[in-house]
Design a protein that fits this description.
This protein is of the alpha+beta class and 302 residues long. Helix content is 52%, strand content 9%. The protein folds into three domains: 3-88, no CATH class; 121-232, no CATH class; 241-301, Arc Repressor Mutant, subunit A (Orthogonal Bundle).
């Protein structure tokens, strides 16, 4: 299901075990109702942890009869709010079942189950932040949907840098997914194609606009090579100095460029931007801005 559409709900039961002066205290359980995202689950647990400790330090109230409560989560204030205090647990009709024998689980069995578990969200969160260097907003976005997380990990497995993979998924992929109302694993693009887009960008063969166009082309052509699609649709930047030289000379010779030329000669590099638009127009957007900038500097500043 799609979490943001209410297909999945969480209702964590939270309390804190506090050890002080050799004694153990358990705070009353709070059940948080109708959470619809991992972010809300994480936020409510974090808030309750602090709230329950503060309340225990002030009142000393511990788990017991009539101490369980139901609370709601306020996404704006990032805090829980009391809805009602539950009556005795008897109202739930709890009673022993004579047909169910006690279950004893060994430590070895628990360890085996832990070893078989996939990487859990909280472990991923820590790894993304500490090992990959992602900020909290980026981590939240990647972990918001399993499909996004799976695609992100698949892209990393191709050798793509975390920085580039994050940029592509949270910009191009997120935009297309929102426009089409699809999860990221339904976009059609493959992890290898994303890796190839990243490499073309890292090698300075495509700019950000071309990268976005190429991403959409790959979504529509999941079996094709990203580089071949880029070549077929003329998205590869022109970096050949021979091809760019004539265009740059034409722009520099234009009387309208006279002031910009003088500014650049006097060391005002910002004026290069005034010429870049003309060069891009002549090259139909294919000129490599970095190469053009260096060529203009060499021509005018020596």
């Amino acid at each position: 299901g799609v979490m943001q559409m209410g297909h999945i709900r969480f209702e964590p039961n939270i309390n804190v075990i506090i050890t002080k002066d050799g004694k153990t205290y358990k705070t009353p359980i709070a059940e948080i109702k109708n959470l619809n995202s991992f972010k809300a689950v994480y936020g409510s647990i974090s808030y309750e942890y602090e709230r329950q400790i503060d309340e225990w330090m002030q009142s000393g109230v511990v788990m017991g009869a009539r101490s369980k409560s139901t609370r709601g989560w306020d996404d704006v204030k990032m805090q829980t709010t009391l809805q009602r205090v539950k009556e005795d647990e008897d109202e739930y009709r709890y009673f022993p079942d004579p047909d169910l024998v006690p279950v004893t689980i060994s430590e070895a069995h628990i360890d085996r189950l832990k070893a078989e578990l996939p990487e859990l969200p909280m472990v991923k969160r820590k790894r993304y932040a500490t090992e990959l260097g992602l900020n909290e907003k980026q981590v939240d976005a990647i972990l918001a949907e399993p499909a996004t997380t799976q695609l992100f990990d698949a892209v990393l497995a191709t050798g793509t840098s975390a920085k580039r993979a994050t940029a592509i998924l949270l910009n191009y992929a997120a935009k297309r997914a929102n426009e089409l109302g699809l999860a990221m694993d339904k976009l059609g693009i493959t992890a290898q194609q994303i890796h190839d887009i990243a490499k073309l960008a890292d090698d300075d063969k495509i700019g950000s606009t071309a990268a976005a166009d190429l991403f959409n082309l790959c979504c529509d052509n999941p079996g094709d090579s990203a580089e071949e699609l880029a070549n077929d649709h003329k998205l590869i930047q022109v970096s050949d100095t021979g091809a760019l030289d004539a265009m740059i000379d034409e722009v520099l010779a234009n009387p309208k460029s006279a002031k910009a030329v003088e500014d650049i000669k006097s060391g005002k590099d910002k004026a290069i931007g005034m010429l870049m638009g003309q060069i891009m127009k002549l090259s139909k957007g294919s000129a490599n801005p970095k190469v053009v900038t260096e060529m203009i500097k060499k021509k005018l500043q020596g």
